[in-house]
Amino acid sequence: MLTLLGSLHVLIAYILNCIYAPNLNEHMPSWVYIVQGCCLWIYMTLDAIDGKQARRTGQSGPLGELFDHGCDSLTAGLALTIQATSLLYGCTWKTVTLIMLGLTNFYVSTLEEYHTGILYIGYFSGPVEGLIFETLTLITTGFYGPQVWLVPFVEYVPSLKQYFGFSEFLLALNLSDSVLLFLLVGIFPTIFASYKHIFRAKRELNLPVSPAFIDLLPLIVYLASVVAWLLLSPNLLQNHFLLFFSFVNYGFSYIVGRVIVAHVSKAEFPTLNRMNIPVFVGLVNSILLNYFHTGLVPRENEVYLVYACLAFSLIQYFHFALTIIDVICSYLDINCLSIKHKKSM
User: Fold this and answer.
1) CA–CA separation, 293 vs 287, rounded Å?
2) Which long-range contacts (CB under 8 A, 24 or more apart) does 90-98 make?
3) What CA–CA distance (Å, rounded) separates 247 from 22?
4) What is the full DSSP assignment across 152-182?
5) Any transmembrane segments, and where (predicted)?
C-alpha cells in the first residue's frame, strides 16, 4: 500500500506537469514546482520504508518485490519528464536523452539484481540521490523560476573562467545542460559498477559472463527502435511527445517487470517480448513513409497509430501485471494490498 501511495504522488506531479506544461518548456506557477518537489520527496520516503514495513508486518516476499519494482519502473519515466520540464528541455532530444539515460540505468540495475540476486545501491542511485536531486531542482525552480537554470555555469563560479577559457562550449554551458552532461558521463561508471558485481557473482559460481551482455539486447532493441521512429517522424517528438512517451513508458515497465518475475521465480531471462510489436509497426510505417512514400498509416494520421500503440501497451501491461499478481497471491495464499490474517482454529 505504501508503494502504491508513493507512486500516486508521482502521478499527481506528472498530471500537474501535463496541465501546466504540455510542451515541457512552459514556465509553470511557482506553487506547481514546489508541490511537485514535495510529491517526489513523499514518493522517495514511502519507497524507502515500504520494505521495512513489509518485514515488520511479516508480508515481505516476491509479490512485494515485484510490486515495488513495477511501480518504480512506471514512475521513473514520469519523474524524469518532470525534471526535464523544470530544466526547460521541452519536447526535444534533450528530454529524450534524459529519459533514455534514466531508463537505461534502471534496467541495468534490474539486470544486475537478476544475475547477482542482490540489489546494489551505488554512491549515486536514482531512487535516493537522483530523487533528492530532482526534488531540490524543483524546489529551487519554484523559488527562483526555471530561468535560473539557463545561466552559464561559470557565472555562478567565476573562478572557473580561467580554466574553461579555452572552450567556448564550456563557457556557454548553462546549468540545465550541465545536468544532462553530468548524467551522460555518469552513466558509464554506473554500468561499469553493475557489471563488476555481475562478473564477481558469475566468477564465484563458475558461470559464463556472456549472458549478462546478451541480456542487454531487449533494452537496446526497444530503445533503438523508439529513437529510430522519432528520427523518422519528428512531428511525434515535437507535437505529441507526452502521448508517445506514455506508451514507451508502459513498454519499458513491461520489459523490466518480466525481468523481475524471472528473478523472483528463478526462471530464464525473458529475451523476447510483445512490447516490441507496436514499436516495430510504427518504425516500419515510418520507414515506408520516408523512403517509399506510402505506409500502413498516412503521415497526417500517424498520431492515431500512436494511440493504437498506447492502447496495445496498456492492455498488455495490465494483463501481465494482474495475471502475475493473481498467480502469486493464489500460490502464496496472500492478498495484494492488505494483510490476510490467518483463520483462528
Assistant:
1) 9
2) 90/23, 90/24, 90/25, 91/23, 91/24, 91/25, 91/237, 91/238, 91/239, 91/241, 92/237, 93/237, 94/177, 94/180, 95/24, 95/241, 96/227, 96/230, 96/237, 97/180, 97/184, 98/180, 98/183
3) 16
4) BHHHHSGGGHHHHTT-HHHHH-BHHHHHHHH
5) 28-46, 169-192, 213-232, 244-263, 275-292, 304-332
Rg over alpha carbons for the chain, rounded to the nearest Å, is 21
Please, what's the largest Cα pairwise distance for the chain? 80
pLDDT digit string, tens, across residues 199-245 = 999 998 898 989 999 999 999 999 999 999 999 999 999 999 999 99
Cα dihedral 290→296→298→303 (10° resolution): -100
Model confidence, pTM: 0.90
Specify whether the CB–CB gap between 108 and 190 falls below 8 A. Answer: yes
Residue 344 reports pLDDT greater than 60: no
Q: Tell me, what amino acid is at 325?
A: I
- CA–CA distance, 236 with 249 (Å, rounded to integer): 15
323 vs 230: CA distance, rounded Å: 32
d(CA 288, CA 286): 5
Whether the predicted pLDDT of 61 surpasses 80: no
Backbone angles phi, psi at 24, to 5 degrees: 65, 15
Q: 126 is written with which cell numbers? A: 536514482
pLDDT in tens, 24-44: 999 999 999 999 999 999 988
Question: What is the residue extent of each domain of the chain?
Answer: 1-332
Whether the Cβ atoms of residue 233 and residue 302 lie closer than 8 Å to each other: yes
CB 253 within 8 A of CB 317: yes
Half-sphere exposure of residue 297: CA atoms within 13 angstroms, side-chain side: 17
Q: At what angle do helices 93-116 and 62-86 cross, to 10 degrees?
A: 160
The separation between CA 81 and the C-alpha centre of its own chain, rounded to angstroms, equals 9
∠ Cα 15 17 23 (to 5°) = 125
293 in the Ramachandran plot: left (φ > 0), alpha (ψ -120 to 50) or beta? Answer: left
